[in-house]
């Protein structure tokens, strides 16, 4: 199904300068600067012609009854401001939940504009654009609104309010380039314009490029009365679970405009998330006084619940919002998105279809619906406690590996966390990273590998990443750990703890899985560029650089490692249970860990500095992300000696580098270079010791594992060879020769279950000689003792090739071994 509507500025233009009504512009300029008292005085002093401008100022101050009077006065005027007054009344009716009155007034304004709008003043033409937006989100209304705003600017090039509304419309419809162009047009004329700066913050938030929070703060510094700026900042604090800061920003918004329902909703979300029932009740009562059916209040609650991974609650709040306003695109979209996250696929799709029909410009909804069209062609395979959904061409191969892995993980996590999530757990595996990104946030381009919504998981498959660069088993293990930590805590676990435990669980299962220390981490920690334990959530939701995200994952896992070292692994079940009972992090640390967060900050810093004492002394941050210090110097010396063929000197330099940072195992590190040097001189045993420092610590080290497999084969070390080949197949399962090689060595070593797995994998790869592959599987099954399955497989071969002699011989052997299989 094609869904491709794009709102564009291409056909529009800002017309030649016209004379502006200076008094109206003066009121707007004062209001935009946050000088609301002066703006109100100037509007009142202008008398009836400035009644609509006065109404706009009063709305900014939350004085809605007085604003209504001003708009009524304006709407009765014969000249400029008449239509702005009428649309202002429509907007107030919409805010109060009187949709019929809002639609009637908007329709009246739009119809009049279409008759004789060419004779209207600029602000009335902008009012026509506002009227079209009141009529709905359908493409015709959005295009008409954009044209009317452009018409307003053409009539008066000083109408900055109309220019900003153009930018707001573009970003509301997910067109960041044209939104940016509109805001920049304003900023070229007025570099400190708060609303345009806030628009740029919205663009940064949408594109994840730039610092949205810092830009929004600049906007409110320019205009402390900018309610929308305080709301954006409050929402960002709320997402980071910084409830105190979120509450302060929401209250700043309400101090300016007590009718700001979104600010009341943020306070309501804080009350709900922290268990403050009085705050929740008072905020809901305030929103209900403003609108008896405050859909936008519940929309905000639903989005906050979704951002805090409380997906079932997000569904509940969004459903309430959608009941209050059946035309709310936002309510239907949040409802549908979170239904998909909880596994209610049909209901989620239906609500997204309803939302998209109302607003065909919504990029999230379009992308998700397009993805659902694609997923409908995937295969679903349900075995045991898991439901695997993946492209049909990949599902047999992936299920061979992932389903047994996840079953094992389920048992381990259930024992450790004293919790068993409901089954089946749904795992969606995507062959294209863009599809996974859309499933996660509705947009392509996020850097994550997987996501857990609780009992619904989604992740990249091996084909979604560059070949031989990604460990899909490690990712699946990580995401399933979230299922347990989310469920055990009733979805109240803070992000840092859930992520830290998932990474720790990766390393616990296989030391090479999960994040490890690298040069950037050590340099950032030494420079003080990473968050303290008490602020660690910020590193995930508001990273100051791309590198901080990965560093935060590893840092969080170290916090968990320290806690476990001091209290044992069972402590986490107690911590998660405390979160489930409504405790905040400070309370959990005091009641379960018997320490305060501030003390934990100091203890953790000391623990990290002790653990990484050598590298912290040897690594420093350089310019533009570079690394310097004794370690970097030793590595550079080693590389120069290699280039000069001074082998002994190179070996000494890399040995020195390894002593300075023994935990570092990157394929560009000293261990790898020492392996190469020892391998070249024929010292296989010592070379292997260096190589295993890489393969034992780096989950996607394809090249190093390939080399280790060869060394193990030369040494006739079947156990080591099987381990190396197995690691390779968790990185890239599409290499048929590796499967055959592992099956052969497993058979030789008597590990028949592993041999069977590998023979099944070969068949899943659709080999050219499928009959021989099935025959080899039958042989492996027979060796494992599964005579019935072996016989079924060999009969399948003989059905296609009755004269296949090896299969005939095997069938005779199976019959003599299992006579009961011949019973009718």
The general outline is globular
Tell me the number of strands.
7
Distance between the termini: 52 Å
How would you characterize the largest beta sheet? 5 strands, mixed
DSSP helix fraction: 55-70%
> Approximately how much beta-strand content do the residues carry?
under 5%
Query: Low-confidence stretches at least 5 residues in length (pLDDT < 50)?
Result: 10-20, 820-824
Task: Describe this structure as you would to a colleague.
β1 (379-383) and β2 form a beta hairpin. The model is unreliable at 10-20 and 820-824 (pLDDT under 50). The protein is mainly alpha-helical and 824 residues long. Among the domains are: 383-488, Glutaredoxin (3-Layer(aba) Sandwich); 490-628, no CATH class; 643-734, Tetratricopeptide repeat domain (Serine Threonine Protein Phosphatase 5, Tetratricopeptide repeat, Alpha Horseshoe); 737-824, Alpha Horseshoe (Serine Threonine Protein Phosphatase 5, Tetratricopeptide repeat), CATH 1.25.40.10. It contains 43 helices and 7 strands. The protein has a 5-stranded mixed sheet with strand order 1-2-3-5-4.
